[in-house]
What does this fold into?
Amino acid sequence: MENSGSALPRRLVMLYGAAILISLIGLGDAIFLTVHHLSGRNVRCAISTGCDSVLASPYATIGSIPIAVLGALAYFTVFSLATLATYGYERARFLLSLVVLLMLISTLWLFYLQAFVLRAFCDYCLLSAAMTLGLSIVVVLGWKEESSRKKREVH
It folds into this structure.
């Protein structure tokens, strides 16, 4: 990975900092769900009543791997890439966008399953969805900032 060599504008650093924070919240959520899944303990919802239905459904795993493990890996990857992006690594910014896009697609699918197939919601799954939506917004704002920065450099 190559560093772009120039310092990032403060706004971009703040956006990547927000991505780091959001990814840590998502990582904590995913680790919590993974531990509960692997230990066989039930998860209680505070707001909704569907945690058990969602987390015990066949959609909560891929084979024997809990979806939450994949979420933890995704959030850790976002944390790592956002950290590298903060230090000006351009490839990390591109990969961050790609990973967040894949997370958003997965989140939309899982939300669809909760709403229309299972007809139940899990608080922790909704928290993860909110974190992924937040990361998506950060990435889009980052693209816009990068675009305006490049336009300013050309002119």
Remarks:
- The radius of gyration is 17 Å.
- Residues 123-154 form the longest helix (32 residues).
- Helices lie at 10-39, 51-55, 67-86, 90-118, 123-154.
- Strands lie at 61-62, 65-66.
